[in-house]
Structure formats: structure tokens, C-alpha cells
Structure prediction request, 64 residues.
Amino acid sequence: MVNIAEYNDAANCECVQKRWGFPSAKRDHLSSQLQHLIRRLLEPDIMLRNTVSQILTSDWLARR
Prediction:
């Protein structure tokens, strides 16, 4: 996974602009459910990041 993020620590506020992307060679082999799960696991905002229960009930894990 490629992460192109911009950080701004001005005034003790860390702001992150996420532009997550998968290299095309990997993207073609990953299901959309897995790509979504990975993006949610890497979410820097803890209010938006998946919880353990959300991960365990994710579409991708449900298909396993």
C-alpha cells in the first residue's frame, strides 16, 4: 500500500490528508472488501478507525 500523506503540526494540531492507494499490481489481487478493511485499519482518526468488533464482523472476514 502506498501512503501519500501531508502532515501539519502547526499549533499542536496534527492534520492528516489521506490519499491511500494500492499499487496496481497488488490492487488487482485484493478484493474491494479487503481494500476497504485495510483503509479503515490505517485510518489516523481514532473516531473513524475500525474497532476490533467492526474488524471481526467485516465483510471480508465474514467470507473467510
Remarks:
- Residues 2-62 form one domain.
